[in-house]
Amino acid sequence: VAGHETTVNALSWTWYLLKKNTDCEKKLYEESKQFAQTNPSFGDVAQMNYGWCVMNEAMRVYPPVPAIGRAIKNDEEVCGYTLKKGRSAVINIAGLHHHPAFWENPSVFKPERFANFDLKGDNRFVFMPFGAGPRICIGNNFAMLEMQIINAMLSSRVEMKLENTEIEPVPLITLKPGNGVMMEIVKV
């Protein structure tokens, strides 16, 4: 599943959210239209600021991996619960990404919230679509590059119409969009 299913799911959720938030889709198009006649390169990605915000916000709303397990290294007391060394703990990434203590209006798709968001410091444990710490996804930078380029090329070259408007998340190892995100695609 690494590098394929997570990326496909993240892109599917992104376009589902963009089609439900057409102002955001228009902003992505405005940023991406320069790629309508060319193929974006690695150097072009740095100019895709809004595209970067869109991908992060989509992964905040629908994290590709909604929870991860970790081995407990030492006995710890957390909020009145004893965590025993050698056992496993589950980190609820989807819960962190929707917690009102960390996110204003957490159920709202708002890419702009990432415009000045620092991915380092304490935020790396509040927003973790690729995991965190020494076991963070080794392909996270490639995945972001790939998704931003795909989104720019799609946004600038085709028009899509969302065919199924109500999709239920299915949390397995990855967070799947129910029966998929069905789109009608028309070349611009």
List the topology elements.
Elements lengths: L4 H16 L1 H11 L16 H13 L5 E5 L4 E3 L2 E3 L4 E5 H5 L42 H18 E5 L6 E3 L3 E3 L5 E5 L1
Antiparallel strand pairs: 1-4, 2-3, 5-8, 6-7
Can you put this structure into words, describing what you see?
There is one protein chain. The protein is of the alpha+beta class and 188 residues long. It is built from 5 helices and 8 strands. It has helices at 5-20, 22-32, 49-61, 93-97, 140-157, and strands at residues 67-71, 76-78, 81-83, 88-92, 158-162, 169-171, 175-177, 183-187. The strands form 4 sheets. It has a two-stranded antiparallel ribbon with strand order 1-4. Strand 2 and strand 3 (81-83) form a beta hairpin. Helix 1 packs across helix 3 and helix 2 (22-32) runs antiparallel to helix 3. The longest helix has 18 residues, at 140-157.
Short structural description:
By secondary structure, the chain is an alpha+beta fold.
List the keywords:
188 residues; alpha+beta; two-stranded antiparallel ribbon; two-stranded antiparallel sheet; elongated
Structural class: alpha+beta
The number of helical elements comes to: 5
Characterize the largest beta sheet: strand count, sense, and whether it forms a barrel: 2 strands, antiparallel
**What's the N-to-C terminus distance?**
33 Å
Q: Low-confidence spans: pLDDT under 50, at least 5 residues?
A: none
Global geometry: elongated
Query: What is the average per-residue confidence, as pLDDT, rounded to a whole number?
Result: 91
Radius of gyration: 18 Å
Helicity level, as a percent range? 25-40%
Beta strand %: 15-25%
The order of strands across the largest sheet is: 1-4
SSE topology string: HHHEEEEHHEEEE
Number of strand elements: 8
